[in-house]
């Protein structure tokens, strides 16, 4: 008798392992400015260029958008943050509401401006950001996060606590503490410059899933990226994280070089999917969102990794850091086009 392969596990969003995500992080927008000429902009130089038709969003908004969109109206997403009393802030809140998020804890600061950044892009595709340091996001502290404590109690044992950059580490520490107190699954991301302060504050010890990129992994591994194979950096970073938190799960993204996940026992690698790239901005955040969605829906880490790879690949086909066309149908179509053999099935969407 021939052994049949097991039927793929269907993503079940009608009976999720988690029922809510409560997250803190920056909420803001950005502009992309394409510079003429490739040489680095000097201190007193005046350089011509033009704005691009690309919309930029902050990490919390990007991740929360994909989680809410893919898990649907039966899932509660509660971002915590501050915006200014301006058109940009009101538009961001409206977009969050339209997506289905509960924005009760996204409040307006009348005496501050919404976080704004300008991304300078050189003709070769490299560039950097200029970001406000006195925006409404700077008002997000532990007290602001504490305002949502009743929601943590309401979703005890059934929630995801998400701590992302562009607000203070103290605010993120409070969120992870509340997540720990109420038995949430705790996910976090930190910038390269925040890695070591986060370690000193004990934040990685309160994290179940850490989402970082290769540069941030390099900071963890205490290695220089130049001349070092990505695999060596990833292994060293995972080794360091296991010392800090033996139970931690890890996602490390490296753009077109692919991504790695550590599920607590083994390291897995998946290549990036070949797609027509419009912009890579926000791909790492889309990847982390895909992992959270997969784990919430009951997938194992290696299966959630496959879903995250699809979400990240679809995200870069849009010029915006949130691809408004991401859906289960679009992800299924991408998997078919790319010939990606999945260990799970999408099933029928309700």
Structure description:
The chain is α/β, with parallel strands linked by helices and 350 residues long. Strand 6 (76-84), helix 2 (87-99) and strand 7 (106-109) form a beta-alpha-beta unit. The chain has helices spanning 59-71, 87-99, 142-146, 149-154, 169-181, 195-200, 214-221, 230-244, 283-296, 301-315, 328-338, and strands at 9-10, 20-24, 28-35, 49-51, 56-57, 76-84, 106-109, 115-121, 127-131, 159-163, 185-188, 209-213, 249-253, 259-262, 267-270, 344-345. The longest helix is centred in the last third of the chain and has 15 residues, at 230-244. It has eleven helices and 16 strands. The protein has a single domain, classed as UDP-N-acetylmuramoyl-L-alanine:D-glutamate ligase. Helix 1 (59-71) packs parallel to helix 9 (283-296) and helix 7 crosses helix 8. Strands 7-6-2-10-11-12-13-14-15 form a nine-stranded mixed sheet, sandwiched between helices. Strands 3, 4, 5, 8 and 9 form a five-stranded mixed sheet that branches. A two-stranded parallel sheet has the order 1-16.
């Amino acid at each position: 008798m021939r052994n049949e392969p097991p039927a793929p596990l269907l993503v079940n969003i009608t009976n999720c392992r988690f029922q809510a995500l409560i997250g803190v992080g920056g909420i803001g927008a950005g502009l992309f400015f394409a510079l003429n000429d490739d040489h680095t902009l000097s201190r007193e130089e005046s350089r011509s260029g033009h704005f691009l038709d690309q919309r930029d969003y902050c990490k919390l908004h990007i991740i929360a958008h994909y989680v809410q969109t893919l898990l649907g109206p039966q899932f509660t997403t509660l971002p915590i943050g501050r915006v200014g009393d301006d058109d940009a802030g009101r538009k961001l809140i409206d977009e969050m509401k339209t997506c289905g998020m509960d924005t009760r804890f996204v409040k307006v600061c009348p005496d501050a401006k919404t976080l704004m950044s300008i991304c300078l892009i050189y003709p070769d595709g490299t560039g950097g950001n200029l970001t406000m340091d006195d925006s409404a996001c700077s008002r997000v502290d532990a007290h602001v996060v504490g305002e949502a404590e009743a929601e943590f109690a309401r979703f005890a044992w059934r929630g995801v606590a998400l701590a992302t950059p562009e607000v203070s580490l103290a605010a993120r520490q409070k969120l992870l503490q509340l997540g720990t107190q109420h038995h949430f699954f705790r996910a976090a991301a930190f910038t390269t410059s925040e890695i070591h302060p986060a370690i000193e504050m004990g934040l990685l010890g309160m994290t179940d899933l850490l989402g970082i990129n290769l540069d941030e992994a390099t900071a963890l591994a205490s290695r220089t990226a130049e001349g070092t194979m990505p695999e060596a950096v990833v292994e060293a970073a995972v080794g360091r994280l296991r010392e800090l938190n033996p139970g931690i799960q890890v996602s490390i993204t490296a753009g077109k070089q692919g991504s790695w996940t550590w599920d607590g026992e083994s390291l897995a690698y998946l290549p990036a999917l070949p797609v027509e790239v419009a912009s890579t901005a926000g791909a790492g955040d889309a990847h982390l969102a895909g992992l959270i969605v997969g784990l919430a829906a009951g997938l194992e880490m290696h299966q959630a990794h496959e879903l995250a790879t699809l979400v990240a690949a679809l995200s870069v086909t849009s010029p915006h850091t949130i691809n408004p066309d991401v859906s289960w149908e679009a992800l299924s179509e991408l998997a078919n086009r790319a010939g990606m053999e999945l260990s799970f099935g999408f099933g029928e969407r309700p």
